[in-house]
């Protein structure tokens, strides 16, 4: 661990008070949370700051049934790009423990494989992540890591994702909803659902496949989402985009303290718009029918 300590040094970077570093994108939410884009932060200052606190970051991922095929690339690319130089615990939730490759990890990084049940419907697999994250946050994560980063597994890192993302509670802008008008956000619109958001409410459309924060905040978020899903299930309701819909409901009334730009969750199917200077974490193309059944 010592080779990790003292790796980062404060620089003499001087911020300019009278010009912002990006003028083409929104850099702050109306509730004063930073929106993280390339060119808006100084990574040396942040690295030194988080290293001083000796933070450990948990990266959680679910690989249930056939999705175990994504694990190798996910971890390999995370080793190259995710929180390099900091302490990282990978938590791989799976029903197929023996399908998870044993991989060599850099110093200060470890992988825990957590055996969990598989649900039959892919919608349930996706939604039940909330319950499992809640339970493990309470039982395990709070004693082991300072922050959790909870993401989809059908992804690869292709550029740096560092401590600039860390905050008490953060969400990520959905790559498919960047320029969309609020009334076109695909929130749940059924007033009977716990995920319901009226057409004249909502700030951003957040992606279900990338959120995080400290353990207490993630416990509260996942507990809310799971309970809301269970309440809907009792009414025979399932929100349009499953866990993502409930996550959007939570973020509407519990504002994230940081918002990640779509650099952090991109899908090349959307092309590469001019404002997107980096693609840090991109979807691996998949055959939905084949992989989910
Ligand atoms: N997932 C899984 N096994 C499944 C279905 C889903 O492990 O059979 C997990 C996996 O982590 C996946 C996430 O649930 O990344 C969300 O599902 P998916 O990526 O298929 O949703 P999409 O990104 O296509 O909306
Ligand atoms: Mn996915």
UniProtKB/TrEMBL annotation:
- Compartment(s) where it occurs, according to its Swiss-Prot or TrEMBL record: Membrane
- How is this protein situated with respect to the membrane? Single-pass type II membrane protein
Where is the major localization of this protein? Answer: membrane
- Assigned keywords, A-Z: Glycosyltransferase, Transferase
Q: Which cofactor does it need?
A: Mn(2+)
| Gene3D superfamilies, A to Z | Spore Coat Polysaccharide Biosynthesis Protein SpsA, Chain A (3.90.550.10)
Pfam families for the chain:
Glyco_transf_6
| Top-level taxon of the source organism | Eukaryota
UniProt KW Glycosyltransferase keyword: yes
Q: Does the keyword Glycosyltransferase apply?
A: yes
PANTHER family named among the record's database cross-references: GLYCOSYLTRANSFERASE-RELATED (PTHR10462), HISTO-BLOOD GROUP ABO SYSTEM TRANSFERASE 1 (PTHR10462:SF55)
Family to which the UniProt record says this protein belongs: Belongs to the glycosyltransferase 6 family.
Q: What is this protein called?
A: ABO glycosyltransferase
């Amino acid at each position: 661990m010592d080779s990790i300590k003292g790796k980062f040094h404060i620089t003499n970077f001087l911020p300019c008070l009278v010009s912002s570093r990006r003028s083409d994108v929104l850099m702050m939410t109306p509730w004063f949370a930073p929106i993280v884009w390339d060119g808006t932060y100084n990574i040396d200052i942040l690295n030194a700051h988080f290293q001083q606190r000796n933070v450990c970051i948990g990266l959680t991922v679910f690989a249930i049934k056939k999705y175990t095929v994504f694990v190798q690339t996910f971890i390999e690319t995370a080793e190259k790009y995710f929180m390099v130089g900091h302490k990282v615990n990978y938590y791989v939730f799976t029903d197929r423990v023996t399908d998870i490759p044993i991989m060599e990890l850099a110093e200060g990084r470890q992988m825990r494989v957590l055996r969990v049940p598989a649900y039959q419907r892919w919608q349930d697999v996706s939604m039940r992540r909330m319950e499992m994250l809640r339970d493990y946050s309470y039982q395990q994560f709070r004693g082991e890591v300072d922050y959790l980063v909870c993401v989809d597994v059908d992804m690869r890192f292709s550029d740096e994702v560092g401590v600039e993302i860390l905050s008490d509670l953060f969400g990520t802008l959905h790559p498919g909803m960047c320029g969309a008008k609020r009334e076109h956000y695909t929130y749940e619109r059924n007033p009977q659902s716990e995920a319901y958001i009226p057409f004249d409410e909502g700030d951003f459309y957040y992606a279900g496949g990338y959120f995080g924060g400290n353990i207490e905040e993630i416990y509260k978020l996942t507990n809310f989402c799971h309970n809301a899903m269970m309440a809907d299930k009792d009414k025979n309701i399932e929100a349009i985009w499953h866990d993502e819909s409930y996550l959007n409901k939570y973020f509407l009334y519990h504002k994230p303290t940081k918002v990640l730009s779509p650099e952090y969750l991109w899908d090349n199917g959307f092309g590469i718009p001019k404002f997107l200077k980096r693609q840090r974490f991109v979807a691996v193309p998949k055959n939905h029918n084949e992989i989910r059944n």
